[in-house]
Amino acid sequence: MKNQKLVLGVLGLGEGRSIISAVQQSEYYELGNICDLNEELCRQRMEEFGLDKYTVRYEDMLEDKEIDVIGIYTPDQLHAKHIMQALRAGKHVICTKPVIVGLDEAKELKECQKNSGKHVFVGQSTRFFESVKYQREMYEQQNIGELITVEAHYKNDSRWFLERDWSRQPGFSWMYNFMIHAVDLAAWYLPEIDEVFGYGAVSPNTREYGLNAEDTMTFVARDTKGRFATIEGAYGSPCLDGNVEFPIECTLRGTKGISRGGYSKFKYYERTVDEEGRHDRAETFDEKHDYYFRFEKENHHAGEYQNYIEYFARKLMKGETPKPDLEEAFHTIGILEAMKRSLESGLPVKVGSILREYGL
Ligand SMILES: NC(=O)c1ccc[n+]([C@@H]2O[C@H](COP(=O)([O-])OP(=O)(O)OC[C@H]3O[C@@H](n4cnc5c(N)ncnc54)[C@H](O)[C@@H]3O)[C@@H](O)[C@H]2O)c1
Q: How far is the CA of 73 from the centre of ligand 1 (A)?
């Protein structure tokens, strides 16, 4: 850390655009450099953010002694490699989701992180969205009593995503790239999920792109205490307007109440019941819109990234581990792997046995 600020280098400048914006607006950070293989995109970002340099060689950022943290926003299939390069160069890592696209590389990654003594934080952005953060704060204040079930979903017609070359290459799936947000929310509230079962369909709409990946899925995930979550995803067909059904939604049912938060609407709903009767709350955070969505439309995540890079910095200052770390992220990937196997076998699958299979 130089001058009490963390110097951050950004790798991958599509979604990486948001973290550049977050760094520029943060008192905890300064921007070290930006990097993308696409030189035209580098120039575009340099102009957009008034920067004076870029590189198309990742090695330049790895060799730069001024850089403390690498923010990784490359295609999913490259994350493991890019994280390990950063750790071996002595950098902390903030990596977007999914941290990896299968568990084959997990053990090596874990050892690499341990040997480096550096942190790897996984940017599960939805946790850092306003209404989702608020729901968590209320939950920690025990507003709904004891948790009974979680209902999480990510439903969004995302066929536009299949225009990207890497979305049609091995390692991409709707499950790992999209549904992970809903899975992460379920695992955030039920960190001991150990069994999953589900059904999925590859719709004709996804097949049209030559992709054989389930685009519509429903799962039940149960934890070691017998509590469970339903987790649903739908990506290849029309969805309702976000005002009717949040694209990402998390509903918590507890002994004393129920709450709902989600993305991308600035709304939170809650009902609690006590001896005096029912208490309904509907909070809105519309004034935060431009903090979260800084570019055209609502297709980037700058506010969430601002929240998580600052959370990362504060944790480092306190000498604590920013979460989700690799261990937590691997558990989430283990749940995804169990989901995949359940679709293949038609049976419930244990998460723990999958993690053990990979030495985790
Ligand atoms: N909510 C979220 O957290 C969120 C949202 C969108 C995307 N993402 C994640 O961000 C990542 C990037 O997604 P995207 O939508 O920006 O994709 P994208 O294809 O637009 O951008 C990826 C960029 O990485 C660059 N790149 C590829 N290999 C490289 C290398 N070896 N060195 C340097 N640059 C390289 C490409 O040129 C491209 O510009 C994905 O992992 C995706 O899952 C996360």
A: 4
Q: Which domains does the chain have, with CATH numbers?
A: 6-118 (3.40.50.720), 127-286+325-357 (3.30.360.10)
Say which DSSP state 302 is in.
Answer: H
Place of tokens 């001991």: 192
What 3-state class would DSSP assign to 220? strand
328-355: burial string, b at 16+ Cβ within 10 Å, e else: bbbbbbbbbbbbbebbeeeeebebbebb
Q: Does position 299 have pLDDT exceeding 80, yes or no?
A: no
Closest C-alpha residue for ligand 1 atom 22: 74
Atom 20 in ligand 1: residue holding the nearest Cα: 14
Q: What is the pLDDT of residues 8-22, one digit of tens each?
A: 999 999 999 999 999
37 lines ligand 1 (CB under 6 A): yes
Please tell me whether the peptide bond between 75 and the residue prior to it is cis, using omega within 30 degrees of 0.
Answer: no
For the Cβ of 58 lying below 6 angstroms from any atom of ligand 1, the answer is: yes
Q: Is 15 in the pocket of ligand 1 (CB under 6 A)?
A: yes
Å from CA of 75 to ligand 1 middle? 4
Contacts of 115 (CB under 8 A, 6+ apart): 87
For the CA of 76, the nearest atom of ligand 1: 41
Which atom number of ligand 1 is nearest to the Cα of residue 161? 15
Sheet holding 92-96, edge to edge: 29-35, 6-11, 69-72, 92-96, 120-123
Q: Which pLDDT band holds residue 304 (cuts at 50, 70, 90)? A: very high
Token code pair at residue 79: 């994350």
Q: How far apart are CA 145 and CA 305, in angstroms?
A: 30
**Ligand 1: residue whose CA is nearest its atom 7:** 15
Which residue has 């934080």 as its token pair? 121
Give the residue carrying structure tokens 């439309």: 297
Structure tokens, 223:
């934890």
Is any atom of ligand 1 closer than 6 Å to the C-beta of 223? no
The rounded distance, in Å, linking the Cα atoms of 89 and 85 is 6
